Amino acid sequence: MLTFTGREVWTAIHGMAFGFGFILFFTAALALLLTLQPQLLTAKGLRRNVTLLKISGTAIAVLSWLAVIVGTYIVYPWYRAAPPKGTTDLGSFPRSRLLANSALSGWHNFGMEWKEHLGWLVPIIATAALFLIFRYGEKLVEEKKIRWTLFVIVCIAFVLAGIVGVLGAIITKEAAVV
């Protein structure tokens, strides 16, 4: 029987559940943005696509905020926990485990530091995109520059989330929170 610790469950929720949801709704938002063209939509289709875009944009923003909040306030303290003096088994202390091995210390010094900083940018950018979606709504079909700006903003959030996700996966592979 496969069992998980509470820490492993929270780590999976943080990275996989919120991350997978982000990717799913990102794909939907991207497809919807690309179809917001006057020659492709009827008035009814435009209303439907804008409603779906609002749902997708909201999901992207909410999931990215949840990932950052859970990562920062639940998973990250376990990662950073300092081992008691004299501890030789660093398996339960991921940060210390990485820093104790010169071959792995870069994953903390570079990877985790970048993950911390870039991670907070994703929900901020996603929220800015959500603002534009709600601000312009059906006008996005007429406002090509705003629509393409929104497209770029959403893609930037996706690329940053991808970098953060890959760094998190590599760090977890080398020093999991257990």
Short description, anyone?
With 178 residues, this protein is mostly helical. 78% of the residues lie in helices and 0% in strands.
Q: Your description of this structure?
A:
This protein is mostly helical and 178 residues long. It has one domain. It is built from 5 helices and no strands. The longest helix has 38 residues, at 43-80. It is elongated and about 70 Å long. The relative contact order is 0.16.
Instruction: Return the average pLDDT rounded to an integer.
Output: 93
Rg result: 20 Å
Structural class given helices, strands, pairing?
mainly alpha
Low-confidence stretches: none
Outline the fold blueprint.
Layout lengths: L5 H30 L7 H38 L13 H7 L4 H32 L7 H31 L4
List its salient traits.
178 residues; single chain; mainly alpha
